[in-house]
């Protein structure tokens, strides 16, 4: 997975935040989390949902339906203040962000919206043995 992610990150950076390949035409951001144990920055490309240009970003700890949450999710729980990189195809911006885990009906509605736009997320939810795939809201930190 590391080589795949490294390629997506390189593609993201080379194309102003718009990677191609598997993620062509998909909204992708780079999450620059702080390692829960190491304290080191970890960069992870993630698909996101954002309903408008001023709303929060939502990311999904799907881990392709694996039975456990991805490492980056644990990093966000330990260190909810970090940065993301987003791009418009020309310019990449690095923004300070605060993470909040979304729960209950709010979580269900956001996840359903993502699954309607990208059906693989519905597949991940069916595949996992976790109670629910976490949804994380990312809001600008000032």
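^ structure tokens above, recovered residues below v
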């Amino acid at each position: 997975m590391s080589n795949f992610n490294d390629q997506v990150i390189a593609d993201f950076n080379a194309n102003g935040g718009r990677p191609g390949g598997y993620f062509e035409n998909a909204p992708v951001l780079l999450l620059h989390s702080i390692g829960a144990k190491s304290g080191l920055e970890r960069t992870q490309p993630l698909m996101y949902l954002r309903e408008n240009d001023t709303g929060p970003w939502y990311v999904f700890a799907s881990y392709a339906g694996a039975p456990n949450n991805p490492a980056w999710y644990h990093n966000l729980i330990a260190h909810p203040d970090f940065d993301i990189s987003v791009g418009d195809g020309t310019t990449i911006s690095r923004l300070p962000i605060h993470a909040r885990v979304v729960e209950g009906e709010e979580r269900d509605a956001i996840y359903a919206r993502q699954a309607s736009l990208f059906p693989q997320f519905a597949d991940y939810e069916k595949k996992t043995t976790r109670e629910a795939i976490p949804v994380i809201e990312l809001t600008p930190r000032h």
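The chain has a mean pLDDT of 95.
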